[in-house]
Write a structure and sequence with these properties.
Blueprint lengths: L2 E4 L35 H23 L9 E6 L12 H20 L5 E8 L8 H4 L8 H8 L10 H11 L10 E4 L10
Helix pairs in contact: 1-2
The structure holds nicotinamide-adenine-dinucleotide.
Length: 197
């Protein structure tokens, strides 16, 4: 049994807007580094799609799944995100790239269904890691406004921890899930179920 987990991912500042909503006055905002939708740099979008989708998921699967074809019990696990279901504000590149990962998970599950390779994904909610720590926490460890917003939208009221991922990863990669392919499992403390009201 071989398992491939496509875990590399992340965002790029050039694919991120400064504000969640576009306002008329943004057109006259000349502050250094201020970015509207119209300032998004294709290089940032390209970087993010390359990292999460092409280089982080599709190409490694081409490389490693070659040895899985025709053998029983092999599976691929992709890492999607809450952004794939409903995009978070400010990060269209990352959201689109993770949507591509979820979509590709379904596509590849169907494509490999005759040759013994299952393909599933997890969609973590919010976990404090190197890619988001500076966005969600201040130097003193207190929450940034965005961090507060995320916790307030997570019914369980906390960030996830690595231990929260383990049982789902084991389940999806184990033979006990032999009839499960093409699903994306949220691990999010209720974030995706909550309307905010
Ligand atoms: N942290 C979260 O809240 C969260 C939520 C949903 C999904 N994710 C996803 O989980 C995965 C792991 O992220 P994380 O939160 O642990 O962040 P992280 O920044 O700690 O880990 C990202 C990993 O990707 C690797 N990586 C980045 N660019 C690479 C490249 N070009 N080639 C090879 N490896 C590269 C890094 O070395 C690092 O190990 C990512 O796919 C991320 O998008 C994270």
């Amino acid at each position: 049994m071989d398992i491939l987990i496509n875990g590399a991912g992340g965002n790029h500042p050039l694919g991120t807007t400064s504000n969640p909503f576009f306002q008329m006055e943004d057109l006259n905002n000349t502050a250094e580094g201020f970015k509207t939708f119209f300032d998004l740099d294709p290089k940032g979008i390209e970087f993010t799609f390359n990292l999460n989708f092409l280089g982080g998921t599709l190409i490694p699967t081409q490389v490693f799944a070659t040895d899985m074809v025709g053998r029983d019990g092999c599976s691929v696990l992709n890492i999607s995100s809450m952004n794939a279901f409903t995009p978070l504000t400010k990060i269209p590149a990352y959201s689109g790239a993770k949507a591509a990962v979820s979509n590709f998970t379904q596509w590849l599950a169907v494509h490999f269904s005759k040759v013994g390779i299952r393909v599933n994904a997890i969609a973590p909610g919010f976990f404090l890691t190197d890619q988001n720590r500076a966005l969600l926490t201040n130097d003193d460890g207190s929450a940034t406004p965005r961090g507060e917003q995320i916790i307030s939208q997570t019914p369980m009221g906390r960030y996830g921890t690595p231990a929260d991922l383990v049982s789902t990863v084991n389940w999806l990669c184990d033979d006990g899930a032999a009839f499960i392919t093409g699903i994306v499992v949220p691990i999010d403390g209720g974030f995706s179920a909550y309307s905010g009201v």
